[in-house]
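quick one: pyridoxal-5'-phosphate bound model?
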Amino acid sequence: MDKSGIIKPVLDASYPMISHGKGIYLYDTDGKRYIDGSSGAITANIGHGVEEIADAMEKQAKQIAFVYRSHFTSAPAERLANKLASLAPGNLNWTFFVNSGSEATETALKVAIQYFQEQGIRTKTKIISRWTSYHGITLGALSMSGHALRRERFSALLEDFPAVAAPYCYHCPLKKTYPGCGLACGNDLERAIQEIGAENIAAFIFEPIVGAAGGAVTPPPGYYEKIKEICDRHNILTIADEVMTGMGRTGKMFAVEHWGIEPDIMTLGKGMSAGYTPMAATMVSDRIINVIRKGSKIVMSGHTFSANPLSAAVCGEVIDYMEKHELVRNAEEQGKKLMASLQDLQKKYPIIGEVRGKGLLCGLELVSDLPTRVPFSATHRVGETLISLCFKNGLVIYPAFGGVTGFEGDSVLISPPLTITSFQIYEMLRILEESMEELMNGLV
Ligand code: PLP
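yep, here:
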């Protein structure tokens, strides 16, 4: 056994070593080609090996790579913050830069609590979230995550923030059917608020489209309008976690735009740097900043690498590249083609229970019995097997397991870079179909 090395996700597993990437393709050191059908972890939005980014990186690194946020600001960080403010909905004009999505949601939690403290309201310290959700792996972010599998080991340290049913129509946690349900999942927030007390709740956090915990679970029409109305009525802030859905992934710059809602706080990560550097952000509205400005004037959070100039220059260039190549429009257009192709696949394979999502955030849910929508037992590892077969055949897709019962539910995400072409979708689908065929042969 090796005496040193990287701690890998599965300790003794062997992972291919990647030598380089170009566009949607990755190449390992044995010369095998993979289609990056999940943009890594829904991150490599502009594809791999983009020279403009490498050039911007080099230029900035030669100029100034690091300054500490409490001593100096930098032109790339200021420019990026202004750019994000010009793109974001509503009055989300202020950005706190961090290094990962987990730090972004954790900062959102702290800012929400601080907003009320600055006004002398000290009881509003809880953040309400939904089951079937993922907001990050650090303890505050995990406290907000409604993901039983990921919480289990650390439950003694976590807050019980998940309190509301997910808007997951395919497996409605409230056993109702849309539209006859009257948006019972939205009303479940009202129930939770009555139980916990609005005076104890600072914010409600949600992924506009549930990613890793459910596989592109998309709420029914009217849901977010209801949520926003309930939160506003109870003086509860809304936090849109756009770490996965933001930066064009769903065919709009931010997924909340699909429903026309303006959150009080919005988190970004993943596609913001498209994977070229670790960078994430918490965007905060005028209303919140004005209160803090009149109070302590200090947002009580921060990291050594916050607002790093090198990372900021990279993210700025990523946005320029997206605009130049109209990648949000491409995500919308190619997303429709991908969705249609996946629906065709669904007709062929009865274990595909649902195809869902928006833009290039697409989910496939596998079920053991189509009419009753019963999931496979977790021990069958059906989703995992499909992912492994795809990997063997040269296509990377992403797991979104445990959405149905917390432990059961085999969904996968298909989320290629936003640069994908129609031919590349065809290429990707051929490998997916070949892998489905192998999966079915193994199941019988
Ligand atoms: N929020 C959402 C919606 C995510 O999907 C993720 C990661 O998958 C996170 C937060 C955490 O981001 P990170 O892995 O960068 O800490």
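Residues 327-348 form the longest helix (22 residues).
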